Amino acid sequence: xxxxxxxxxxxxxxxxxxxxxxxxxxxxxxxxxxxxxxxxxxxxxxxxxxxxxxxxxxxxxxxxxxxxxxxxxxxxxxxxxxxxxxxxxxxxxxxxxxxxxxxxxxxxxxxxxxxxxxxxxxxxxxxxxxxxxxxxxxxxxxxxxxxxxxxxxxxxxxxxxxxxxxxxxxxxxxxxxxxxxxxxxxxxxxxxxxxxxxxxxxxxxxxxxxxxxxxxxxxxxxxxxx
Length: 226
Ligand code: AP5
Prior knowledge:
Blueprint: E1 2-7, H1 13-24, E2 27-30, H2 31-40, H3 44-54, H4 61-72, E3 81-84, H5 90-103, E4 109-114, H6 117-125, E5 127-130, E6 138-140, E7 159-160, H7 167-191, E8 194-198, H8 203-213
Parallel strand pairs: 1-3, 1-4, 2-3, 4-8
Antiparallel strand pairs: 5-6, 5-7
Helix pairs in contact: 1-8, 2-3, 4-5, 6-7
């Protein structure tokens, strides 16, 4: 299985990707996480993209296309994966179509998460993430609290507010999302791979909708805080 998750910032792509990784044994590929890691390591790509990401702007298509192409052409590439946040523009989708043909790893589904901007802002304002880049656990002060205040349940590291989670940056990220998404969704609608889920539901209900749309029976509940 090879999936793409499409949705606004804060729509729950990362949360659902984590559950799908556990349930279906997929490899997680998140372009946002890869780029944040490049920023933390101060690589040439990281230095280039930092000011854009800090402002809530998209990284240029060619940079993110190269990041994904490099990863999926390695000898130890994942063969079954969930892509979180890529492709994010029609141009990226076309480049990714070409890459899939070249590496013979066709997508099996594209899941689109439908949610309002106000709900996104509400969720992101209470998101906290683990400071440890190797852990990447994500919490929410309203919906998914850590067991000990400000401390990661998994690695016991401190929790932080993501650099691009300030409200004005989130609004900019939403503008970027709306600018690009209709064309992206239309691209995938034409392929017949697209399914849409109501992302305003609770985490478990979305998880069940996603599994059902992928043809898997949602016969066991996810452990949403482990
Ligand atoms: P990226 O890291 O991909 O961020 P994003 O797409 O903006 O998405 P988020 O990680 O903010 O949210 P999410 O949908 O994963 O939601 P989450 O599960 O965390 O990208 C960051 C930046 O990198 C971009 O702005 C861009 O600059 C750059 N970039 C990355 N990919 C790119 C590309 N392809 N092209 C160009 N630039 C690119 O949930 C959010 C919160 O809500 C959490 O606190 C969670 O606990 C909570 N929550 C989740 N589900 C629910 C629920 N059902 N009910 C209540 N709360 C919930």
